[in-house]
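Bug #77: duplicate submission created two jobs. Keeping one. Sequence:
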Amino acid sequence: MEILKKYRFPLGMLLLFEGIAVTLWLTLDNLFYLFNFSYIGGFLCLGIVLGIQQRKHTRLVVQLGVGLYMLFYVGLLSGENMQLEGFWFYLFSGVFEAATIHYLVAKIGGPLLFGRGWCGYACWTAMVLDLLPYKRPKAPRRKGLDWLRFLLFALSLAFVLVLFWLAPADMEHIMFVAFLLGNLFYYAAGILLAYKFQDNRAFCKYLCPITVFLKPMSHYALLRVQVDEAACTDCGACKKVCPMDVDMTSNARNRDNATECILCTQCIDICPQKALKL
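Kept job's structure:
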């Protein structure tokens, strides 16, 4: 019973993804979804188990396992545009396939359950950016740059709307090229921003258009790092290691950068009072 209690969260995560996998497989009569969500759920479960056991490089293992699968297999080999413009394209086409399902599960509905967990464990952009040297931002978060993410969000939507208006014969090919160029832009912009602001996660904070979906949904997330406020001594250890500048000394949903937590659990590991937990 003690083992079950200790690992109930990863087991619950695995069962959730298996439920999605089986439902989509039977509903859409496509075996790919059984494999896809079983694979992702299995890796996430493994990552949580290794995290509970405090193994080193746990999050990196999951990032590489899920991120490379999404980027190379689903994106490059299967030809699915998994970026935001791909979501708009398939949504407006009335195609309930990989990109639309991915966004509904991971970036629109999912955050109500696990917040920004996708950003911490599965994003193929952050997978690369987290390898850069600025694990913790060297300076306070810049104000007034939020408009950049909304601009990119609007441009992705405008691009797809113009594409439908022009209706070229090779729309699928154009979307695949857009996927390649979009990823190159994200990596280049992310690396430049990381070095400019000395912060690996600068792209996530200022430019990533997916946060337009993620932030409002994450406000209501069920899975959150919570603090025992009576045990917390405000020593500042959690603030020093948090890559997203989240105030972990309060459980209020409107605290500083509350919707930014990527569940990396570095704050939990470093807290000398053991006041933080998932």
